Amino acid sequence: MHEPRGTTASVAALPGLPPGVGAAGSLSARLFNDSIGGFAVAAADELGLLDAIAEHGTVDREAYAQEHDLHPPSLRAVTDALASAGVVAVAGDKVTGTTSFADVHATKGFFTWLLGGCGELLRTAGAVGRTANRHGRFIQRDATRISIGTADFGARFIDPVFDAMLDRDPPTRMVDVGCGSGSRLISALRRHPHATAIGIDVAPAAVALARARLVDAGLADRAIVIEADVHDLEHRPEFADVDFVCSFLMGHDFWPRERCVRVLDNLRRAFPALRSFALCDTYRSGRVPGTDLPILTLGFEHVHALMGQDLPTLDQWYEVFDETGWRVRHEYDLVLPPHSKIFHLTPDRGGDRR
Ligand SMILES: C[S@@+](CC[C@H](N)C(=O)[O-])C[C@H]1O[C@@H](n2cnc3c(N)ncnc32)[C@H](O)[C@@H]1O
Domain map of the chain by residue range? Predict the structure, then answer.
């Protein structure tokens, strides 16, 4: 503690301001500090630190920085922010998970998706809110971080449900539309050793990542990844015997309604041998604004509003399935992401119903 040098006077309240403004525990201080804590979760995930703490319980941050060629003051700042948020406890250089660590570790993919993938969009929300600025490439997102984030929470919360579904209806030749990092192709090919697969994604960064991961997984001879836009996907010879199509966490990109109807019609034409379509997506919750929201919902609806993308409700999905002749054979409600389902769809054998 420092001794004051001169005479001191405490200022109890500033004129016109409520007492305690910005003080520890105030709403403003919590919001300010939690926003840094959220970014620290995304950073710690990118640096592999959260997995290291989950594995070892305690990590020495100086040793970790040295071992992974990290900037020690940055790592100290990230871990201090995590400690302020209550995710870890720091004693000297030892960083240990708190009782809340498992919750944050399990959901880290949502942070990586929101803050790693859409952080720039959130930062520029003010500029994006001006109509005059909404032209050209005004939406800046990081396709790689989005893919890594969705793959992380997908593996934990979606894949167990999807794997069971796939076991009941095994694919011969499978397509993943909007395949992102390719993680789902890899797990499906490992689970079904006689199947082959095609990944499709519009983002060159995601295509490159998926191709690299398939090579690393030793599965490059059983899968290809194509850079294409599902909105104008046409039949290709390699699609002829595709019997199973899936699409995870991008169905809302099919919308608005008229385009979604076109996409759902096109999928049946592009894949004439298709018998099952697993469509997994998060729908509009109808709960925003609210104070008791689970993880994701606010961020998901927030960034799509900034991008000018109207998210479909569940009823709107049912309407387009009816209109395009896709029958809902089964639907699986997911615990996380919230307000999300896997629809197991089959094409109406009556053909094009319109
Ligand atoms: C939220 S990520 C989900 C990635 C992956 N399906 C998963 O579950 O982890 C959405 C993916 O869809 C891709 N995508 C978006 N619009 C697309 C389009 N019109 N055609 C093809 N891919 C698209 C994006 O590039 C991104 O990789």
Answer: 30-111, 158-289+310-347
